[in-house]
Structures are given as structure tokens and as C-alpha cells.
Design a protein that fits this description.
The chain is of the alpha/beta class and about 230 residues long. It has helices at about 25-40, 45, 50-60, 80-85, 100-115, 145, 150-160, 180-190, 205-210; strands at about 70, 90-95, 120, 135-140, 160-170, 210-220, 225-230. The chain has a seven-stranded mixed beta sheet with strand order 3-2-1-4-5-7-6. Strand 1 (about 70), helix 4 and strand 2 (about 90-95) form a beta-alpha-beta unit. The structure holds S-adenosylmethionine (SAM). Keywords: Methyltransferase, Transferase.
């Protein structure tokens, strides 16, 4: 489903030569659909405490007017306003989301703002087909997507220009001497991710496919912020 699609002014890139990678398996997709269909209506409120971290992540993308940026697992589109503002009217924002109930809220956001250069796709990020490669990609609280070890390198190669900036933010286990942070991570993760696997280093598969420039902790070590380049 494309909700908004107008040609950007940046020159189209040559078509990506890698085909789409495999998507999350059926049971995982079902679990994610269930999880996020149930949360869609209250999602924006629940994420409000992370607004500053979101701003920091988007600033770390170092976007310029006219650039193309991907918001992978874009959810209800909470990052879209700042991404759109950073790339301007000549740039392009592409949001990819697999849960229709979440995407419909992103669609409303785009329609209300009247952005003609924000495109939304209902797809698993691993399978999305893009008309152009992007200058940057954001993974904001997309734990389950980042655990797709075999699909991530193909996704990055297919979707991003060489040197493209990538920023990821998410929950992670804090060191054992921070039990309150870990209690928060456990509660939040049980509520919001399909599997607790990989929470010690949720960034590891992404980091393996990038040149990582910075990996920092946030939120009393309950979250990480990774910056790197393809
Ligand atoms: C915690 S929400 C984050 C939403 C958004 N990035 C934000 O900043 O608010 C995670 C989102 O990723 C989506 N998601 C999970 N795996 C995905 C995948 N493989 N492809 C596309 N979307 C995915 C979920 O449906 C959910 O909407």
C-alpha cells in the first residue's frame, strides 16, 4: 500500500540489484500484528516519554534538505514530522511498517499535514521494495526487526547508498548493578517485543553490517543509541 507518492527532486538511483530479503516468519509476524494492533490507539501516548531520545536520534542522522530517509518499522509515524522537517519539501521520507493498525495512524498524520513527499508502505522492512536508495535510515524501537540477523545485511545493501547514515535506538539490558533499570526493561520488553532474545546487545546484527561510529547508553542504561554508516 502506498499512501502518498510524489516524485522527489533528487535524481533516482539505479535500481537496487539485490532482491528483497526474507520477511519475519509467519508466527513472528502474527505475534507482531497482535501486539501492535492492540497498542495502536494508545501508542503515541505511551511513547511520549521518549520524545527527547527520538529528537536526539533524528538529529544524529545529520539529514540535509533534499535527502531521502527511511523510517523502518515506522509505527504510527511519530518520527515523521521531524524527519520531514529535516529533509524539507524537496527531500523524501519513506516509512515502512508491517502492522496495518499502526500504519493507518501514520497515514492520518501524513494526510493531515498534507506532505506530498512522505511515502508509507505496508510491508515487512525485509521485503520492502524501494524505487531509490536512501541517504539515511532510522530504526527507532524496532527490536524485533533488528533481530533478523540474516535479513539485515541484505536490507541495508538494497535500501541504502554506500556511506548512508544509520541510527538505531532501543531497549537493552542494563548492567546487573542497575536492577531498577532492568526491571523497567523487562516490563517494557514483555509488553512491546515479540521475543526477549538479544536484549543484551540488540544492536549486534546491525552493528555487524555497518561501520559503527558511536554506541552509547541512554535512560539509565535501559536504552542504547547506535550511530554508524553503511
Ligand atoms: C515499538 S514500535 C516503534 C514504532 C516507531 N519506530 C516509533 O518510533 O514509534 C515497533 C514497530 O515496528 C514494527 N515492525 C516490527 N518488525 C517489523 C518489520 N520486520 N518490518 C516492518 N515493521 C516492523 C511493528 O509493527 C511496530 O509498529
Amino acid at each position: 500500500m502506498r499512501t502518498s507518492s510524489s516524485p522527489g527532486h533528487s535524481p533516482p538511483d539505479s535500481p537496487p540489484d539485490n532482491g528483497p530479503a526474507s520477511s519475519p516468519d509467519g508466527p513472528l509476524q502474527d505475534k507482531l500484528q497482535q501486539l501492535y494492533s492492540a497498542r495502536a490507539a494508545r501508542y503515541d501516548l505511551e511513547l511520549a516519554p521518549f520524545a527527547t531520545l527520538r529528537d536526539e536520534a533524528i538529529a544524529a542522522l545529520q539529514l540535509q534538505p533534499g535527502r531521502t530517509v527511511l523510517d523502518l518499522g515506522c509505527g504510527t509515524g511519530l518520527s515523521l514530522p521531524a524527519l520531514r522537517q529535516a529533509v524539507g519539501s524537496r527531500g523524501r521520507v519513506i516509512g515502512v511498517e508491517l502492522c496495518p493498525a499502526m500504519l493507518v495512524r501514520a497515514q492520518q498524520r501524513v494526510a493531515e499535514a498534507g506532505w506530498r513527499n512522505v511515502e508509507l508502505q505496508l510491508a515487512s522492512a525485509e521485503q520492502t521494495v524501494l524505487k531509490r536508495t536512501a541517504d539515511a535510515a532510522l530504526f527507532f524501537f524496532t527490536h524485533d526487526l533488528l533481530q533478523q540477523a540474516s535479513a539485515l545485511p541484505a536490507l541495508l545493501a538494497r535500501a541504502l547508498k554506500p556511506g548512508a547514515r544509520v541510527v538505531a535506538v532501543g531497549l537493552c539490558w542494563a548492567p546487573p548493578w542497575q536492577p531498577w533499570s532492568n526491571a523497567f526493561v523487562l516490563g517494557a520488553a514483555l509488553y512491546s517485543v515479540a521475543s526477549l532474545d538479544g536484549l543484551a546487545q540488540p544492536w549486534r546484527h546491525l552493528a555487524a553490517a555497518l561501520r559503527v561510529s558511536q554506541l552509547e547508553r541512554r535512560c539509565l542504561d535501559a536504552a542504547y543509541l547506535l550511530q554508524g554508516c553503511r
